[in-house]
Amino acid sequence: MFKSILRTLVGCYLVASLTQTVSAAPAPAQKIFVTMGKDLSHHVFTEKSNKIVSTHDDLTVVEITPEDFEKISHSAHEEFNRCGGFMAHNSLEEAMAELDGNATREFAKNVSLADYSLNQANTVKAHIGEAKEINIRNTIIKLSSFRNRYYKSQTGLESQEWLLEQWKRITAKRNDIKVYKFKHTDWPQDTIVAEIEGASSEKIIVGGHADSVAGWWGRERAHAPGADDNASGIATMTEVLRVLVDSGYKPQKTIVFAAYAAEEVGLLGSKDMAKTYKAQNETILGVLQLDMTNFQGSEQDIVMMTDYTNEGQNKFIATLIDTYLPGVSWGYGKCGYACSDHASWTSQGFPASMPFEAKKNDMNPHIHTSRDTLAQSDNHAKHALKFAKMALAYVIELDN
Ligand code: BES
Ligand code: ZN
């Protein structure tokens, strides 16, 4: 939320400061490279203009002068009624990198490597019946009992140690499952990973962030139970893992559970992991993000976020809900910005989805405060249980 406001403000400030430079100095012909939506670039420049350097899908790089910059910002404000929507870069390289990033994100929204047909009805139904609300509830209670799970605090390290031990305990009887720390070089909190090795190294990823924050100052000491954001997602994943292990499920593909570090400070843990997987050339069939699963605020039980996500996989998940979760309703919604770890995977070109607890306007209003407790969800994990069942259906059907 804050970030997007900040971005807008920075955009406006940039316009103001460049405008000042222009009026103060007659200036040597200065070049600015700007990325902007095609709609805006075509509105501002004529067809014959040679200012458009490169275009991909909806994004354009233009090479302009400070005068042009003024023209664009004026147009954006007056006619398009917006402040942002374009970004200035110091060099052509930087502008092209932004264009590339955009192309990769567009690719991730539409790529489909997976077979989304349903053919595991019996297995799915048997597993769904094994998921238990009480287990999810108990994990939420435990995780939210740490003072906070901040990425730099002692309790934020201890909570990840607890999760590591918990996942090790759950998977102890299986020698085809590895539970380990994915370490990050720039901060102390680890991402915790549980990997069920399949016949194939192709991966299905179920993830969510384990860290929590409250307030802006003194975060290392602040009380941040993060029961919904996001003990709920971690507890949901943990129950999915337990059900698969206890039933003796042996996957075809490799199933990866990831409890990310440092999401609340800029998606850092997932960004690091997604970049590593990309560098290792991993084949990833799908990524399911579980972030906030236990506050029922909307008429729809599950809201599929359509931004920074893969359209085909979103439809697949909706079909899974219709097929396997009778009485559970779903709808589409939007975050409006890169609001959680699914965006890290999308940015690296991998298909990701983010089924959310409610429409954004109806979500848990207590997140990022000391009031994000299980009491806000009637001391139950009934809503999260629907997500555990959905995730089980997702893993089993995508695996086959
Ligand atoms: N759980 C939220 C994500 C979220 C917020 C989803 C609102 C849907 C609606 C996440 O932990 C979070 O707080 N994200 C940050 C952005 C992130 C890049 C630091 C946010 O939304 O401000
Ligand atoms: Zn959050």
Could you please describe the fold and organization of this structure?
This protein has 400 residues and is an alpha/beta fold. The protein has 2 domains: 11-100, no CATH class; 107-399, Aminopeptidase, CATH 3.40.630.10. 42% of the residues lie in helices and 16% in strands. The chain has 12 helices and 13 strands. The strands form 3 sheets. Strands 5-6-8-7-9-12 form a 6-stranded mixed beta sheet, with helices on both faces. Strands 2-3-1-4 form a 4-stranded antiparallel beta sheet. Strands 11-10-13 form a 3-stranded mixed beta sheet, covered by helices on one side. Helix 10 links the parallel strand 10 (302-305) and strand 11 (330-333). Helix 5 packs antiparallel against helix 12 (382-398), helix 8 (227-246) packs across helix 12 and helix 10 (311-324) crosses helix 12 (382-398). The longest helix has 23 residues, at 2-24. The chain is globular and about 70 Å long. Bound molecules: ligand BES and zinc ion. Ligand BES is lined by residues 1-3, 229-230, 263-264, 266-267, 291-292, 335, 338-340, 356, 360, 363.
